[in-house]
């Protein structure tokens, strides 16, 4: 027995609620709405400049004409599907939809200016630029900034909470949880600033980027200037030198930055997973949730694990997009056409990961008792402080020790020593009394340097 039609992608099924905002722009319907918008704005540009004997439309006619884009909905989606079934060409279907709208408004005298001197890619490249920009700035970036904001909040809250660092997975010079989270905030904010300055390019220069049809129709016009004015009127950056397609370099740059953000977030997830495993963070039980089907005690860090997997899927697609889109055989091939239809999938997996990270961060609580016990169990990490102080004392002429590093290596390497052993060792050192007292006052919990205050650099 066959199932009724089902969504093939989990983004359209199990996880649809988390990524629905992207569908507003990066779905086929969102792309077609943008195509309608570009076609209408080009038509309005031509009539506003009274090209080819056309006349400026009234304010009411402009509003009515633009209403096809602003009210684009299921009726238009269905009509386009019917048109494309006949045309077998998506942009041509959009042109026919616009022409029908013109007829309904009694504007058939300007119908031939629909899609005038435009190749399909003139419409497509501008439509993709508009929809990708909206998807990134209005949907993905808010989710990204939500992660940064929560990390910043926790960084400030935990700035003074000392914890044992683990370089190479081994006990190392202590830090604070707040400072470690601040590292991620700083890294992610750099990417956010880069994304804020991203360019979204567009071209509008005909079949091979030469304005040939434009000049054939009217060689008295400054068509490059007209093209630039039209592209920039849409809020995009004009690309004057293209083939039939806009070269997609801006997309490769954008996807590289988002992929970089994904990789930093992946690092955050693996660190949070490890902190939970070490007991540094306690997971807050969710009422009614099941951690394991057979082990009722478990609360699994599934939010971070889910995010890891989706970040990896997102980057697989983003990397592929960046590699594929920058190459087009000679003046045009269609590899970009099917490739670009997956931009929403790539961003969808990343957005789903952002949603999980925010959820995961909101379901953990710092376990200060475990942090303190871990520090107290690793007094040997003060060996760095001791040998550094001894070196300073030798330089100042207050010690006759010849190899402080070897001395501390012999005491601490591969060994677990406690406060008693370390206190006795320091008390017997050949160093000045002031330095000795500084070392005797030191504990693993206080040996955090400027970790807490370094968090303030987030506000610089």
From TrEMBL:
Its EC number is 4.3.2.2. The keyword Lyase applies. Residues 328-448 form the Adenylosuccinate lyase PurB C-terminal domain. One of its GO terms (biological process) is IMP biosynthetic process. Residues 61-307 form the Fumarate lyase N-terminal domain. InterPro entries: Fumarase/histidase_N (IPR024083), Fumarate_lyase_CS (IPR020557), Fumarate_lyase_fam (IPR000362), Fumarate_lyase_N (IPR022761), L-Aspartase-like (IPR008948), PurB_bact (IPR047136), PurB_C (IPR013539). SUPFAM superfamilies: L-aspartase-like (SSF48557). Keywords: Lyase, Purine biosynthesis. GO terms for molecular function: N6-(1,2-dicarboxyethyl)AMP AMP-lyase (fumarate-forming) activity. Pfam families: ASL_C, Lyase_1. It comes from the Bacteria. Pathway: Purine metabolism; AMP biosynthesis via de novo pathway; AMP from IMP: step 2/2; Purine metabolism; IMP biosynthesis via de novo pathway; 5-amino-1-(5-phospho-D-ribosyl)imidazole-4-carboxamide from 5-amino-1-(5-phospho-D-ribosyl)imidazole-4-carboxylate: step 2/2. Catalyzes two reactions in de novo purine nucleotide biosynthesis. Catalyzes the breakdown of 5-aminoimidazole- (N-succinylocarboxamide) ribotide (SAICAR or 2-[5-amino-1-(5-phospho-beta-D-ribosyl)imidazole-4-carboxamido]succinate) to 5-aminoimidazole-4-carboxamide ribotide (AICAR or 5-amino-1-(5-phospho-beta-D-ribosyl)imidazole-4-carboxamide) and fumarate, and of adenylosuccinate (ADS or N(6)-(1,2-dicarboxyethyl)-AMP) to adenosine monophosphate (AMP) and fumarate. PANTHER family: ADENYLOSUCCINATE LYASE. This is Adenylosuccinate lyase. It comes from Subtercola vilae.
């Amino acid at each position: 027995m066959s199932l009724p039609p089902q969504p093939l992608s989990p983004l359209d099924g199990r996880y649809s609620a988390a990524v629905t905002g992207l569908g507003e722009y990066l779905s086929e319907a969102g792309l077609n709405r943008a195509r309608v918008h570009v076609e209408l704005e080009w038509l309005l540009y031509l009539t506003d400049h009274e090209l080819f004997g056309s006349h400026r439309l009234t304010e009411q006619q402009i509003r009515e004409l633009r209403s096809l884009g602003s009210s684009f909905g299921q009726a238009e989606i269905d009509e386009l599907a019917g048109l494309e079934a006949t045309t077998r060409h998506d942009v041509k279907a959009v042109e026919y939809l616009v022409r029908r709208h013109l007829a309904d408004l009694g504007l058939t005298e300007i119908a031939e200016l629909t899609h005038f001197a435009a190749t399909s890619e003139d419409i497509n490249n501008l439509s993709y630029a508009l929809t990708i920009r909206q998807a990134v700035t209005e949907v993905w970036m808010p989710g990204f900034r939500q992660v940064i904001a929560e990390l910043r909040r926790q960084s400030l809250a935990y700035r003074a909470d000392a914890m044992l660092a683990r370089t190479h997975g081994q006990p190392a010079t202590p830090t604070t949880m707040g400072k470690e989270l601040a590292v991620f905030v700083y890294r992610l904010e750099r990417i956010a600033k880069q994304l804020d300055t991203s360019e979204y390019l567009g071209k509008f220069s005909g079949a091979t980027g030469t304005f040939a049809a434009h000049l054939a129709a009217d060689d008295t016009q400054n068509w490059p200037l007209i093209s630039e004015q039209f592209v920039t009127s849409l809020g995009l950056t004009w690309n004057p030198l293209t083939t039939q397609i806009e070269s997609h370099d801006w997309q490769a740059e954008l996807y590289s930055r988002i992929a970089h953000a994904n990789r930093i977030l992946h690092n955050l997830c693996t660190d949070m997973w490890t902190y939970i495993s070490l007991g540094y963070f306690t997971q807050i039980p969710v009422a009614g949730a099941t951690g394991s089907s057979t082990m009722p005690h478990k609360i699994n860090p599934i939010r971070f694990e889910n995010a890891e997997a989706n970040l990896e899927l997102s980057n697989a697609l983003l990397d592929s997009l960046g590699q594929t889109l920058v190459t087009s055989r000679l003046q045009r091939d269609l590899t970009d056409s099917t490739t670009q239809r997956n931009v929403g999938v790539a961003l969808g997996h990343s957005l789903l990961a952002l949603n999980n990270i925010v959820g995961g961060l909101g379901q953990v609580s710092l376990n200060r008792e475990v942090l303190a016990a871990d520090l107290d169990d690793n007094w040997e990490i003060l060996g760095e402080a001791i040998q550094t102080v001894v070196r300073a004392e030798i330089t100042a002429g207050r010690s006759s020790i010849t190899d402080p590093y070897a001395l501390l290596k012999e005491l601490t390497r591969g060994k677990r020593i406690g406060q008693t052993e370390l206190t006795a060792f320091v008390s017997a050192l050949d160093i000045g009394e002031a330095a000795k007292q500084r070392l005797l006052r030191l504990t693993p919990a206080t040996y955090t340097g400027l970790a807490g205050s370094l968090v303030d650099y987030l506000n610089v």
